[in-house]
Design a protein that fits this description.
CATH architecture of the largest domain: 2-Layer Sandwich
Shape: elongated
Largest sheet: 6 strands, antiparallel
CATH superfamily of the largest domain: GAF domain
Radius of gyration: 20 Å
Number of helices: 10
Strand order of the largest sheet: 5-4-3-8-7-6
Oligomer: single chain
Number of strands: 8
Length: 256
């Protein structure tokens, strides 16, 4: 029979240590706990980070169990189920905000729209279900980017496309913006994807707390934003409330 693979055993030991720690741990802590050289542990933990099993804090450099590992084995959320769970709340969101409401999830490096509620007015509109949004230039995409490690890795794989003069194409600047998204609970885009268009979105979580989608609104800048082109706080509150409601539909916050 083939022998045990030492690197796999060590990688498993790293994950076991991270799983029991309450706070992110340093490379030195891992090396000491395993009685290994820092260089050896560094190579292993970086590989685990690259595949999404370990997260690394951008400021401290410390490590924790990655969201991909926590979600491993869970069945992917079906598009139709997501739409069914969100339909009542997105209808209400469109009614409260008088803007188009959308639900999107991460697929193939983009935010794919799985449900679209038309703006409740007489204007000519086209159905957006099945269309895709760039992750870095739209509110739906940013709400996903800020929380989904799979999506976040895509912004480091190559140059970010500039859609308008306001598109953020500098990765460090984008990462700072995504940190703000995590702090505030919602994302915004003002003419970053298309001139004259603004959007606000918030993350949707499943029972485990994993971000599986985003809910948001899109509309003209002068409708979504105040005279200083800042997203209106009242609209952001409606979006966050809708995202929380859809999350509850998916079991988030419920006792098992």
């Amino acid at each position: 029979m083939p022998g045990r693979v030492q690197s796999v055993e060590r990688a498993a030991a790293i994950l076991q240590i991270l799983a029991v720690e309450q706070e992110p741990v340093s490379l030195a802590h891992l090396a000491g706990a395993l009685d290994l050289a820092k260089t050896t542990v560094h190579g292993l933990v970086q590989t685990l980070r690259d595949v999404g099993f370990v997260d690394q804090d951008a400021e401290s450099g410390c490590y924790s169990v990655g969201a991909d590992l926590l979600h491993l084995g869970a069945a992917p959320l079906d598009r139709n189920e997501l739409r069914a769970r969100a339909i009542n709340w997105t209808d209400a969101l469109a009614g409260h905000t008088h803007e188009a409401a959308l639900v999107a999830r991460y697929e193939a490096g983009e935010a794919l729209v799985v449900h679209h509620v038309f703006r409740p007015d007489a204007s000519v509109q086209s159905l957006q279900t099945g269309s895709a949004r760039p992750l870095h230039a739209t509110a739906l995409g940013k709400a996903i980017l800020a929380h989904d490690p799979r999506a976040a890795r895509t912004i480091n794989d190559g140059a970010l496309e500039s859609h308008t003069y306001r598109t953020v194409v500098d990765p460090p600047r984008l990462h700072r913006e995504l940190a703000d998204v995590r702090d505030t609970g919602w994302a915004a885009s003002v003419e970053e994807w298309r001139p004259g268009l603004a959007s606000i979105a918030a993350p949707v979580r499943d029972r485990s707390g994993y971000v599986v989608a985003a809910v948001g609104i899109e509309g003209p800048v002068d409708s979504i934003c105040d005279p200083r082109q800042r997203p209106r706080a009242a609209l952001a509150e409606h979006v966050v409330d809708a995202a929380r409601a859809v999350s509850r539909e998916l079991g988030h916050g419920r006792r098992r």
